[in-house]
Amino acid sequence: MLSLNLSCEGWNFKYVPLFLGPNLTMLRIFPRPTCSEESVTSFFANIPQISPQLSLLMLRGTVRWSASLSHALGSLRCLESLCVDVSQDSMIGYLLLGLCHLPSLRDLTVFYLCDDPRTLEGNGRK
After folding, report:
1. Coil, strand, or helix at residue 110?
2. Contact predicate 104/73, CB 8 Å
3. Which element (helix H / strand E) includes 121?
4. Which residues neighbour 53 within 8 Å (Cβ) at sequence distance 6 or greater?
5. This prediction's pTM
6. Which of 67, 73, 94, 123 is most enclosed, with most CB atoms within 10 A?
7. What is residue 61's DSSP assignment?
């Protein structure tokens, strides 16, 4: 079992695959806010070929979920545990699209990041 923790602050996200290998099973990534959607999506698209045994993925930070990112996420067939941040309601739909293609997923943790306290109060939570 090989685990890798990455903080992508100060360097380009596209170089992350250089650290991956076929024995990697756990990956925790904290991308910097300036990471583009394209670089994150292309990274996910390459994981199944580079690290086919990846079973735990933690993606914390300001990644914008989209249809293309969800499609790339859906290619991680061995993924059993996923932890992600979501900052807008529209992103949850895209995230769910990707989850539909993960037959091994057993554990999902979604952190809903909200800067507007009125949103939480409107949902009956404080």
Report:
1. strand
2. no
3. helix 117-122
4. 22, 23, 24, 25, 78
5. 0.74
6. 73
7. S
pLDDT tens, N- to C-terminus, the chain (126 residues): 555 566 555 455 666 666 677 888 888 877 666 666 777 777 777 788 888 888 988 887 766 777 888 888 888 889 999 988 877 777 788 888 888 888 899 999 988 876 555 554 444 443
Locate the domains of the chain by residue range: 2-122
13 φ/ψ angles, rounded to the nearest 5 degrees? -60, -30
Q: How far is CA 121 from the centre of its chain?
A: 27
The Cα 98–Cα 69 span in angstroms is 8
The rounded distance, in Å, linking the Cα atoms of 13 and 68 is 17
* Of 19, 60, 47, residue with least CA distance to 4: 19
Interacting residues of 117 by C-beta distance below 8 A, sequence separation 6+:
none
Count of all residues that appear for the chain in the document? 126
Residues 6+ away with beta carbon under 8 Å from 11: none
